[in-house]
Design brief:
By secondary structure, the protein is α/β, with parallel strands linked by helices. The protein has eleven helices and 13 strands. It has helices spanning 11-22, 38-48, 62-71, 86-91, 93-113, 148-166, 200-208, 236-248, 266-277, 301-307, 315-330; strands at 2-6, 26-31, 53-56, 74-79, 118-124, 171-177, 179-181, 215-218, 230-231, 233-235, 253-258, 264-265, 283-286. The N and C termini lie far apart (39 Å). It binds nicotinamide-adenine-dinucleotide and uridine-5'-diphosphate. Nicotinamide-adenine-dinucleotide is lined by residues 6-7, 9-13, 31-36, 58-60, 80-84, 99, 103, 122, 124, 177, 180.
């Protein structure tokens, strides 16, 4: 029996593939390389120390999916494949709805055709919108997303819940990630932002590498201890481990936050990065970024109680590992 990992050569997918292989699982990876590539696959195989069963395929391609499901005895799908750039989604909503929503629909139709009834899905804390108090709990109302990317995640969550309600032999686990950062300790796998990064950690590492002159801190007048926004940063290795636990505990329809339960400010991240790496990060305070909320962090109790999940890596390790990855990229 195999686990099909869609988007498995991407940032979070690749780390999860390694964890699944470490657990002795038979893994089949599918990716269209729209935001990764053969290099990532080679590095993944290098770390795994063995070839990986891989298909360059699109989740929108029903024929390709049929071939994969027809070839392998798939017991569960871990579904990472999707477009994820919030800003880009505002300018390209149709591309996001097609790729993420129609792609997931096509994938789920293939699952149904082949009797695959176990699905783990990559959702995001963005579905909590801006109206809920922190920490976010899984039973809080969702929706009210401020961009098409967030709306695709919200729609897919509903599709999966509807599927389970229509037939409760489907086991669906929705994982709401907070802010994944960090990289594989080998320094050979990590996040590949296309162009100038929008997210904080890749921006910081590119400043550290001298590729960008300085970090703009988007606002220091929020109602937080130091005025900069608080986010729940989680190491990608912890996140990957959360997927293994989710697969081991599939049953019914469940939603879990994957975070640390701690909010860290932008200024604290900058300071921690400097302490952990010895590299200074020139920065200036600028205006707030439209759409940002002051505080976002997870209530982690449900994942802890039901999955046995606890994030173990601290901010310094996240910074060190992110920097090792950037240094590898800069070589
Ligand atoms: P990523 O871009 O590194 O990985 C996604 C992978 O999916 C890429 O390798 C890409 O080539 C592939 N892909 C995209 N569309 C595809 C398609 N139609 N068919 C086949 N492959 C396709 O992103 P990531 O950071 O690893 O994110 C993985 C998932 O987690 C995404 O669904 C993302 O929305 C979600 N997520 C990410 C974050 C984050 O901050 N990184 C936060 C919350 C949720
Ligand atoms: N941020 C920043 N400068 C940057 C990028 C991000 O000050 O160049 C801040 C941003 O305002 C937010 C935090 O860092 O408070 C995390 O932003 P990111 O885009 O990484 O994640 P998200 O907005 O999805 O939480």
């Amino acid at each position: 029996m195999s686990i099909l990992v869609t988007g498995g050569t991407g940032y979070i997918g690749s780390h999860t593939v390694l964890k699944l292989l470490e657990r002795g699982k038979d893994v089949v990876v599918l990716d269209n390389f729209s935001n990764s590539g053969p290099d990532a696959l080679r590095r993944l195989e290098d770390i795994a120390g063995r070839p990986i069963t891989f298909y360059k395929a699109d989740i929108l391609d029903a024929n390709a999916l049929s071939k994969i499901f027809g070839t392998h005895n798939v017991e569960a799908v871990v579904h990472f494949a999707g477009l994820k750039a919030v800003g880009e989604s505002v300018g390209k909503p149709l591309e996001y709805y097609r790729n993420n929503v129609a792609g997931t629909l096509t994938l789920l139709e293939a699952c149904r055709a082949f009797g695959v009834k176990n699905v783990v899905f990559s959702s995001s804390a963005t579905v909590y919108g801006s109206a809920n108090p922190t920490p976010y709990r899984e039973d809080m109302p969702t929706g009210g997303c401020t961009n098409p990317y967030g709306r695709t995640k919200h729609i897919i969550e509903q599709m999966l819940q509807d599927l389970h309600h229509s037939d409760n032999s489907y086991n669906v686990t929705i994982l709401r990630y907070f802010n994944p950062i960090g990289a594989h300790p080998s320094g050979k796998l990590g996040e590949l932002p296309g162009g100038t990064p929008n997210n904080l950690m890749p921006y910081i590492t590119q400043v550290a590498a001298g590729k960008l002159p300085k970090l703009n801190i988007f606002g220091a007048d929020y109602d937080t201890p130091d005025g900069t926004c608080l986010r729940d940063y989680i190491h990608v290795e912890d996140l990957a481990h959360g997927h293994v636990l989710a697969l081991e505990n599939l049953g019914g329809c469940n939603v879990y936050n994957l975070g640390t339960g701690r909010g860290t400010s932008v200024s604290e991240i900058v300071r921690s990065f400097e302490e952990a790496t010895g590299v200074s990060i020139p920065h200036v305070i600028t205006d707030r970024r439209p759409g940002d909320i002051a505080v976002s962090f997870a209530d982690t109790r449900k994942a802890q109680r039901e999955l046995g999940f606890t994030a173990e890596c601290g901010i310094h390790q996240m910074c060190r590992d992110s920097w090792r990855w950037q240094s590898f990229l800069s070589k």
